[in-house]
Design goal:
48% helix; 11 helices; 10 strands; globular
């Protein structure tokens, strides 16, 4: 692991892993190498059953201020498409993984940084954070599913406005349109996010992972197919360790011990 991306266990709760982008001098702008490194890290964490919640944040004034333009400004079409494919695969892994992933948006989340944030399950933003789909101000378009995930998250009208204006909207406005879940004072961002992660870590990661996939896949299906898929997954879940343990613990008035 390089110094560009840091990974550590939460000291208070080892079920929680914190990934920190660590290029504050570049506002944590993403390179292809960063995407590859994060991809490897996400794969490793998905295989780690002791990891229940992942928090992604940035050091300094940027969560992630988009792609590293210094490396993309003269890129070939082939290179740009390669970057797009790398990012799409990575963000889909984040979206569909078994763990809950929380974006702790500490500063600028722009372009590809916003696209990473909206692939996470939950977004907590510091009051000073700014979020934007800013590619059109550079004569480009979003290439990491921003044109697909953002309308599903906040609605087509708001998404088109963010695309067309390329404006960096404040955290309070982002909360109004459903782009972020919570807005907190800057100095309380990690404390709030960790408390949220601890509440999530108490529940079944297996059940959460199944529920996440049902929600994601269900949006792409008609309601009848989605309902049948939900029924099938209920059947697959019943009889498993977490379902048995969770209900037994409820009846015995004790804390469950989930896998």
């Amino acid at each position: 692991m390089s110094e560009s991306i840091l990974c550590e266990r939460c000291e208070k709760n080892n079920d929680i892993v914190i990934i920190t982008f660590n290029k504050p001098e570049k506002l944590n702008a993403l390179s292809v190498e960063d995407l590859q490194e994060l991809d490897t890290l996400v794969e490793q964490l998905h295989e780690d059953k002791s990891c229940r919640v992942i928090i992604i944040t940035g050091r300094g004034r940027g969560f992630i201020a988009g792609a590293d333009i210094s490396k993309l400004k003269t890129a070939s079409k082939e290179h740009a498409m390669m970057y797009s494919r790398w990012a799409k695969r990575l963000y889909e892994k984040i979206e569909r993984g078994r763990q809950t992933v929380i974006a702790a948006v500490n500063g600028y989340a722009l372009g590809g940084g916003l696209e990473l944030a909206i692939s996470c399950d939950i977004r907590v933003a510091a009051e000073s954070a700014k979020l934007g789909l800013t590619e059109t101000s550079l004569g480009s378009i979003p290439g990491s599913c921003g044109t697909l995930r953002l309308p599903r998250l906040i609605g087509l009208g708001y998404a088109k406005e963010m695309l067309a204006t390329a404006e960096k909207i404040p955290a309070a406005r982002a909360a109004e349109i459903g782009l972020v879940n919570h807005v907190v004072p800057d100095d309380e961002l990690m404390e709030y996010t960790l408390a949220l992660a601890e509440r999530i870590a108490c529940n079944s990661t297996t059940a959460i992972g199944i529920g996440k996939r049902l929600m994601t896949d269900g949006l792409e299906m008609d309601i009848h197919r989605a309902m049948e898929l939900e029924t099938l997954m209920i059947g697959a879940n019943y009889g498993g360790h977490d379902q048995r343990e969770g209900m037994a613990a409820f009846m015995e008035k004790r804390k469950p011990v989930f896998e």
